[in-house]
């Protein structure tokens, strides 16, 4: 870690004192030297419970174990089945039992090697086992690398209630190897790009007082904005941009910057990260999770932009640009599928969103300056129904 340049390292410090911190490292090939990298955060005497899912285990568990053992760590793997079903109290019980069997004490740690499911489950278990032990996130999906592994939100589902039981528990470090995204399916990569596009649309609202200077300088002019970069790169290269370390680092830095300043979502800043999510959750839930989370977010982004354009607070070109990028990323089938859902049912789902305020649907919407967003809870149902009823022209 000490050999990394400042550009590869994103440091998060949490107030009031900088006694809690988290580092995010983005480096191609990092997984093959995982042990060495971990030594920057944990002593070699630390016992590790490495949690992963069956699919990721097949691809990366052997090399991760080899590197950890070679560096002197005592490591115990625990493999859960792939998929959302593993974010359950029953699987958490399995993790606790594996930790007890491995003899993990308070000074030991858990590693989450996988996507958001493994990350949320392991983070939850680490935050509750012995009232909290360190966790290191090693995200392997695009969604986890730019979003879910960063920020300390952990959860398992409680029956039907998504993320029904959860905690805030900051990881000691988030270790990102963009190369592992090469084995991810195109569908998962495209879905992850939904979250990447979200960062392009909220970037300027995420920056501000207290933001690291390096991040500010990256964004000193509109031409350098993430949105402009995404437009150029996606138009030219389509989905291949999904594995670009620069993009990953930039999105991770934005999330880190927001979370450091509003860790527990009390100031409204962290809420900006929900752009597209209130619409998106309605599609995700009505489809009974047929849509991947990132696909639903992509649909939600388009709805939020359409609403902002309809309200006259964003330029029509924003909608055109977004739709073109979604097409280049291979997300048009999701947009077509979205129009089969009844607007009234979608609106009813949006009313159940847990972020709503005093019964009003709370939305994040783009503004006239791309990259700036605002919170609105004054949109009429009729207008929302009109937006939800929009059809994509063939
Ligand atoms: N904590 C947060 O802040 C936060 C934010 C957003 C989403 N989430 C949660 O994240 C979860 C979704 O995460 P996800 O989209 O990463 O899904 P996931 O963890 O289920 O991974 C998707 C699929 O990809 C496979 N996979 C993972 N890495 C791979 C790789 N490198 N190569 C090939 N296959 C690979 C997995 O086995 C799985 O089948 C949801 O439960 C959601 O609630 C949490």
Please describe the biggest sheet, giving its number of strands, its sense, and whether it closes into a barrel.
7 strands, mixed
Give me the strand/helix succession.
EEHEHEHEHEHEEEHHHHHHHHHEEH
* Poorly predicted runs of 5 or more residues: none
Q: Indicate the percent of residues in helices.
A: 40-55%
Structural category is alpha/beta
Number of strands: 11
Give the ligands present: nicotinamide-adenine-dinucleotide
**Biggest sheet strand line-up:** 1-2-9-6-5-3-4
| Average pLDDT level | 92
Supply Rg: 20 Å
Beta-strand content? 15-25%
* Rough outline: globular
Helical stretch tally: 15
Distance between the termini: 50 Å
Write up this protein:
There is one protein chain. This protein is of the alpha/beta class. The protein has helices spanning 34-38, 54-70, 89-101, 116-128, 142-148, 186-206, 213-218, 226-237, 245-261, 277-286, 293-310, 316-328, 332-338, 343-351, 381-389; strands at residues 9-14, 20-26, 47-53, 74-80, 109-114, 135-139, 153-158, 161-168, 173-176, 363-366, 373-376. The protein has 15 helices and 11 strands. Strands 1-2-9-6-5-3-4 form a 7-stranded mixed beta sheet, sandwiched between helices. It has a two-stranded antiparallel ribbon with strand order 7-8. Strands 10-11 form a two-stranded antiparallel ribbon. α10 (277-286) crosses α11, α10 packs across α14 and α11 (293-310) packs across α15. It starts with 8 loop residues before the first strand and ends in a 5-residue tail after the last helix. Bound molecules: nicotinamide-adenine-dinucleotide (NAD). Nicotinamide-adenine-dinucleotide (NAD) binds at residues 53, 55-56, 59, 82-84, 87, 114-118, 120, 140-141, 143-144, 147-148, 151, 153, 163, 180, 183-184, 188, 293.
């Amino acid at each position: 870690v000490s050999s990394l340049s400042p550009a590869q390292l994103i440091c998060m410090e949490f107030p009031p004192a900088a006694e809690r911190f988290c580092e995010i490292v983005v480096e191609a090939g990092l997984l093959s030297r995982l042990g060495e990298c971990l030594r920057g955060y944990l002593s070699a005497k630390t016992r590790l419970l490495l949690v992963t899912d069956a699919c990721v285990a097949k691809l990366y568990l052997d090399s991760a174990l080899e590197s950890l053992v070679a560096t002197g760590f005592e490591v115990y793997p625990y493999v859960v089945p792939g998929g959302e079903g593993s974010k359950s109290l029953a699987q958490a019980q399995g993790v606790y039992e594996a930790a007890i069997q491995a003899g993990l004490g308070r000074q030991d740690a858990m590693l989450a090697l996988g996507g958001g499911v493994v990350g949320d489950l392991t983070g939850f278990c680490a935050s509750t086992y012995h009232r909290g032990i360190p966790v290191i996130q090693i995200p392997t999906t695009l969604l986890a690398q730019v979003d879910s592994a960063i920020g300390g939100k952990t959860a398992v589902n409680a029956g039907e209630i998504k993320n029904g039981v959860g905690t805030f528990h900051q990881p000691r470090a988030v270790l990102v190897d963009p190369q592992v995204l090469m084995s991810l399916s195109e569908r998962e990569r495209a879905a992850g790009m939904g979250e990447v596009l979200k960062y392009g649309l909220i970037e300027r609202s995420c920056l501000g007082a207290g933001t690291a200077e390096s991040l500010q300088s990256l964004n000193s002019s509109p031409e350098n904005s993430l949105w402009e970069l995404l437009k150029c790169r996606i138009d030219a290269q389509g989905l291949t941009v999904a594995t670009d370390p620069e993009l990953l680092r930039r999105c991770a830095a934005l999330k880190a910057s927001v979370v450091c300043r509003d860790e527990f979502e009390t100031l409204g800043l962290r809420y900006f990260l929900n752009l597209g999510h209130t619409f998106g959750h309605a599609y995700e839930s009505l489809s009974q999770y047929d849509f991947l989370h990132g696909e639903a977010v992509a649909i939600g982004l388009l709805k939020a932009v359409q609403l902002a354009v309809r309200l006259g607070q964003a330029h029509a070109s924003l909608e055109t640009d977004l739709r073109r990028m979604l097409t280049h990323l291979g997300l048009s089938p999701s947009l077509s599928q979205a129009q089969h859902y009844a607007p009234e049912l979608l609106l009813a789902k949006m009313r159940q969103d847990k972020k709503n305020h005093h019964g009003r649907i709370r939305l994040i919407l783009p503004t006239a300056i791309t990259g700036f967003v605002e919170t609105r809870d004054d949109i009429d149902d009729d207008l929302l129904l009109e937006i939800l009823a929009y059809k994509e022209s063939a």
